[in-house]
Design a protein that fits this description.
This protein has nine helices and no strands. The protein is 79% helix and 0% strand. The chain has helices at residues 8-24, 28-40, 46-58, 62-75, 80-92, 96-109, 114-126, 130-142, 147-173. With 174 residues, it is mainly alpha-helical.
Length: 174
């Protein structure tokens, strides 16, 4: 399809299709190259930056992930998705304060956005802030999260945090 692209929109659509296909095939590095080619050709959008940031986060390259997710926000600061993705990346790196801030930003833009509400419910549960955990659990479940899935996620992260704490304690005893 690339050779028949005639407009910027054609290049964007084909590039996005190729990159998403590569991502689905778990060829993240190749997908990242497509997104970088699109950026070098000034065929960018919040989706291009956001998807590239998401790829870098999944690869554990949090510096580049942060850069591209912030560029996604700059490209469209009214789109809650990059805020939510940045919140999830910070959560994955145990930076709960930044995770909460970006999740709250996402909800400020779209109060019916399930993912950041779910993330906040999990964080506040882990922090034992029951009023906020209940508040965001209600928001998450009223926007499509099932109570069972939310409880399972909270239990999973509580167990994970306990394992990490135990591992840290064992490491410090050596």
């Amino acid at each position: 399809l690339k050779p028949v692209c005639q407009t910027r929109d054609d290049v964007y659509a084909v590039g996005l299709f190729i990159a998403l296909t590569l991502t689905d095939m778990r060829l993240e590095n190749e997908a990242a190259e497509i997104y970088k080619q699109m950026i070098s050709m000034n065929v960018v959008s919040t989706t291009v930056y956001g998807n590239l940031g998401h790829i870098y986060a999944s690869l554990g390259n949090y510096d580049d992930a942060t850069t591209y997710l912030r560029l996604a926000i700059e490209a469209d600061d009214k789109n809650p998705v990059p805020y939510s993705n940045l919140a999830k990346m910070y959560f994955d790196t145990y930076d709960f304060e930044n995770a909460k801030n970006y999740a709250l930003d996402a909800l400020e833009i779209n109060h019916k956005f399930r993912q950041p509400a779910t993330l906040l419910a999990i964080i506040y549960s882990l922090e034992k802030d029951i009023p906020n955990a209940d508040k965001y659990s209600l928001i998450a479940t009223s926007n499509g999260e099932t109570p069972e899935r939310l409880k399972a996620a909270i239990d999973h992260y509580k167990a994970s945090m306990t394992e990490n704490e135990e591992s840290d304690t064992e490491d410090s005893d050596d």
